[in-house]
C-alpha cells in the first residue's frame, strides 16, 4: 500500500509535482503513466525518501519511507538500471545490499538464479547489456522479498523476450498479493500489464481509474464502410453518408474514399445500406488506438487543471460494433 | 525464462523482520570498499610511495656521513604518499554519486547519517591499519639499513612517526571523504583536497611574517614533517594531530547535515 496526500515538489520556481494524491493498492499492478518530464520519477523518488516533498506526505506500508525499520524487507525498487558501480561484480553489488537488510548470503544466489544472472554473477556489472542491467536491478528489488515493489520504466530498452519476462513477473508479484507500482510512458505497454492506471501530466493527476474503465472510455470503436466502386461512387458515398447521419451516426470521410462511422452497430449500417439499395464492398470493425486517447489526455494537461477522470469534452461517442 | 522468486521455500524466514543495525551497514560498507579496484590501486600506491621514496633516501645515506637519519628520510614519501589515501577517501563516497549507486544504497538503507557514519568508520579503520603498517615498515627498513650508523630516535619519536603517521593518514582521508560528500563530484573533491594539502604551504611563502608562521605551522605539509621530527614552529606533532582531528570532526559533521537535508 502506497498513499500519497497532496504531494508537491518545487525546484526553485519550477513545479515538478503539484498536489498529487493517490493510493496504490495491494494485489494489483498499478501503472503510473505520463509523458517524459511529467513528474513520474520525481514522485517515485519522493515515495522512496530520496527527495523531500515541498509539501504533502507519502507513506509506504503506513510509514514514511525514511522511518521504515528495514526498508528492503518492506519495499523493493528499481529506479534505473545504471544505478550500480560498474567496477563491482553483480554478486558483490547484491551482497552489499543484502547485508544492509541483514539477509544471508545464499539469498543473493537465489535472486541471481531467479533473474537468470547466475552465470555472470562474478563478472563486472559495468560490462552488462541493458537487459542484464535491468535484470540486476530487479534482482536487487526482490532481495528482501518485499510486499511493495516500485519499478521505474522497467521495460525501457528491453528486447521482446525481456519485456515479456518483466510483464509476467509483475503479474506474478501482484497475484501473490503484493503492491506493484510501475511507471511507463507507453500506454500500450500499460494496457497489457496494469490493472489500474494513475495518469499524470505536468505534475498533476489527470486520471485515476481501472485499466478496463480507461479502455472503455477512451478507445472508441468505429466502422469502416466502403460503397461499390464505379462511375457514381462519389454519389453513392454521399447518399450513404446522408442516411447514416440521419440515423444518428457520426460520419467522417477517409482519404481512400471509405467512410469512418461511429455511433452505429455494424448490422444497423448494413440494414440502412440495404434499405437504400446500396451495395457495400467493405464493412469492418475498428478500435481507435489507446495510445491516441492517452496522448489526447496528456497533451491537454494544461487546460484541464484538476480533472479526475480526463477531459469530459473529449468523451468519444459510445459505439458497439 | 521462468520466474522463480522462491517465495514459498526461500532462505528468508517469515515472521518478525529484524530492524537494521549498525553492524549490517558496517558489513555492507566493508563489502563495498573491498570489491572495487580503486581501493587496491590507491592503497598499493600509498605503500609504494611511502616505502619507495624512503628506501631511496636510506640507500643514499648508507655509508655516507651527510644525509638525514632514517626518521628524516621518511618525510618525503609520507607527504607524497598521502595523496592516494586522500583520493581513496574521496572516491569512497563520490563513486556512489557518480555511478548513481547512492540512490540504490539509500533506497535499501534510508538512514543517511548512520550510512555516512558507517562509511567513515570502515574507511578510517582501513586507512589507519594500513597507514600504520606502511609507516612501521618504512621505519623498520630504515632501522635495518642505517641502524648502526647514527643515534637511534627515541621511543616517543618512533611512536609518533608510526602511530601518529597512521592516524594522520586516516584523518586526512576522512577529511577528504567529508569533502567528497559535500561536493558529490570525484574530480572536484580531489582538486579541493590537493589544494588543502599543498596551498597553505605555498601561500605562506608570499605572506607577511606573522601570518606566514601561523599558516606554515598548521599546513598539512608541516604537520607531516612534524610527525617525523623535522617540522617548524613550536607546536608538537600530537598537538597538530589534535588540530587535524578537530577540523575533520567539524567538516564531517557538516557533511552529515548536508547528507540529511539534500535530495539525492
Name its key features.
heterodimer; A: 321 residues; alpha/beta; Rossmann fold; Alpha-Beta Plaits; 2 domains; 11 helices; 35% helix; B: 264 residues; mainly alpha; 76% helix; globular
Helices and strands in order:
The complex is a heterodimer of chains A (321) and B (264).
Chain A: E1 2-11, E2 14-24, E3 29-33, H1 40-47, E4 55-60, H2 71-74, E5 75-78, H3 90-100, H4 105-114, H5 130-142, E6 148-152, H6 160-175, E7 179-184, H7 187-193, E8 196-201, E9 204-210, H8 211-218, E10 221-227, H9 233-246, E11 250-253, E12 259-262, H10 266-275, E13 280-287, H11 290-299
Parallel strand pairs in A: 3-7, 3-8, 5-6, 6-7
Antiparallel strand pairs in A: 1-2, 1-4, 8-9, 10-12, 10-13, 11-12
Chain B: H1 22-34, H2 37-61, H3 70-73, H4 75-99, H5 101-108, H6 112-146, H7 155-183, H8 186-204, H9 209-217, H10 220-227, H11 237-261
Helix pairs in contact in B: 1-6, 2-4, 2-6, 4-5, 4-6, 4-7, 4-8, 4-10, 6-7, 6-11, 7-8, 7-11, 8-9, 10-11
Give an account of the 3D structure.
The complex is a heterodimer of chains A (about 325) and B (about 260). Chain A contains eleven helices and 13 strands. Chain A has about 325 residues and is of the alpha/beta class. In chain A, the strands form three sheets. A six-stranded mixed β-sheet of chain A has the order 5-6-7-3-8-9, with helices on both faces. In chain A, α3 (about 90-100) packs across α4 and α4 crosses α5 (about 130-140). The radius of gyration of chain A is 25 Å and the shape is elongated. The model of chain A is unreliable at about 300-320 (pLDDT under 50). In chain B, α7 packs across α8 (about 185-205) and α8 (about 185-205) crosses α9. Chain B starts with about 20 loop residues before the first helix and ends with a helix. Classes of the chains: A alpha/beta (about 325), B mainly alpha (about 260). Chains A and B meet through α2, α3, α4 and α6 of A and α1, α4 and α5 of B.
Amino acid at each position: 500500500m502506497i498513499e500519497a496526500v497532496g504531494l508537491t515538489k518545487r525546484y526553485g520556481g519550477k513545479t515538478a509535482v503539484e498536489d498529487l494524491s493517490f493510493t496504490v493498492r495491494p494485489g494489483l499492478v498499478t501503472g503510473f503513466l505520463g509523458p517524459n518530464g511529467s513528474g513520474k520519477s520525481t514522485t517515485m523518488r519522493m515515495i522512496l525518501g530520496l527527495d523531500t516533498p515541498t509539501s504533502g506526505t507519502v507513506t509506504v506500508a503506513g510509514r514514511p519511507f525514511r522511518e521504515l525499520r528495514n526498508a528492503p524487507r518492506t519495499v523493493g525498487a528499481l529506479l534505473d538500471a545504471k544505478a550500480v558501480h560498474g567496477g563491482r561484480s553483480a554478486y558483490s553489488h547484491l551482497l552489499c545490499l543484502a547485508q544492509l537488510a541483514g539477509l544471508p548470503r545464499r539469498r543473493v544466489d537465489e535472486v541471481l538464479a531467479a533473474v537468470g544472472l547466475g552465470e555472470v554473477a562474478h563478472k563486472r556489472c559495468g560490462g552488462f547489456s541493458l537487459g542484464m542491467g535491468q535484470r540486476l536491478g530487479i534482482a536487487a528489488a526482490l532481495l528482501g522479498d518485499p510486499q511493495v515493489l516500485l519499478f521505474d520504466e522497467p521495460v525501457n530498452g528491453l528486447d521482446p523476450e525481456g519485456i515479456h519476462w518483466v510483464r509476467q513477473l509483475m503479474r506474478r508479484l501482484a497475484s501473490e498479493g503484493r503492491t506493484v507500482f510501475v511507471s511507463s510512458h507507453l500506454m500500450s505497454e500499460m494496457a497489457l500489464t496494469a490493472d489500474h492506471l494513475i495518469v499524470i501530466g505536468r505534475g498533476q493527476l489527470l486520471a485515476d481509474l481501472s485499466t478496463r474503465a480507461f479502455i472503455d472510455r477512451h478507445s472508441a470503436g468505429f466502422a469502416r464502410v466502403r460503397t461499390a466502386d464505379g462511375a457514381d461512387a462519389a454519389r453513392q458515398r454521399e447518399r450513404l453518408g446522408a442516411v447514416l447521419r440521419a440515423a444518428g451516426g457520426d460520419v467522417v470521410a477517409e482519404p481512400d474514399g471509405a467512410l469512418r462511422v461511429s455511433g452505429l452497430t455494424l448490422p444497423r449500417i448494413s440494414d440502412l445500406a440495404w434499405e437504400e439499395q446500396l451495395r457495400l464492398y467493405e464493412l469492418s470493425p475498428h478500435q481507435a488506438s489507446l495510445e491516441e486517447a492517452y496522448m489526447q489526455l496528456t497533451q491537454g494537461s494544461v487546460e484541464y487543471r484538476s480533472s479526475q477522470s480526463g477531459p469530459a469534452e473529449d468523451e468519444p461517442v459510445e459505439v458497439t460494433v | 525464462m521462468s520466474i522463480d522468486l522462491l517465495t514459498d521455500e526461500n532462505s528468508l524466514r517469515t515472521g518478525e523482520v529484524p530492524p537494521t543495525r549498525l553492524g549490517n551497514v558496517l558489513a555492507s560498507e566493508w563489502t563495498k570498499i573491498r570489491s572495487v579496484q580503486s581501493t587496491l590501486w590507491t592503497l598499493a600506491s600509498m605503500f609504494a610511495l611511502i616505502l619507495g621514496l624512503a628506501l631511496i633516501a636510506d640507500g643514499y645515506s648508507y655509508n655516507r656521513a651527510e644525509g638525514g637519519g632514517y626518521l628524516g628520510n621518511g618525510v618525503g614519501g609520507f607527504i607524497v604518499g598521502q595523496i592516494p589515501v586522500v583520493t581513496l577517501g574521496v572516491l569512497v563516497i563520490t563513486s556512489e554519486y557518480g555511478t548513481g549507486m547512492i540512490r540504490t544504497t539509500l533506497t535499501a538503507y534510508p538512514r543517511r547519517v548512520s550510512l555516512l557514519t558507517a562509511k567513515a568508520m570502515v574507511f578510517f579503520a582501513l586507512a589507519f591499519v594500513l597507514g600504520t603498517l606502511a609507516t612501521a615498515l618504512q621505519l623498520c627498513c630504515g632501522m635495518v639499513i642505517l641502524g648502526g650508523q647514527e643515534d637511534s630516535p627515541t621511543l616517543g619519536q618512533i611512536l609518533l612517526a608510526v602511530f601518529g603517521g597512521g592516524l594522520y593518514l586516516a584523518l586526512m582521508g576522512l577529511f577528504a571523504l567529508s569533502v567528497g560528500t559535500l561536493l558529490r563530484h570525484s574530480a572536484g573533491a580531489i582538486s579541493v583536497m590537493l589544494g588543502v594539502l599543498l596551498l597553505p604551504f605555498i601561500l605562506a611563502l608570499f605572506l607577511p611574517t606573522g601570518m606566514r608562521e601561523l599558516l606554515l605551522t598548521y599546513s598539512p605539509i608541516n604537520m607531516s614533517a612534524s610527525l617525523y621530527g623535522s617540522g617548524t614552529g613550536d607546536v608538537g606533532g600530537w598537538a597538530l594531530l589534535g588540530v587535524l582531528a578537530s577540523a575533520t570532526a567539524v567538516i564531517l559533521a557538516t557533511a552529515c547535515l548536508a547528507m540529511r537535508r539534500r535530495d539525492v
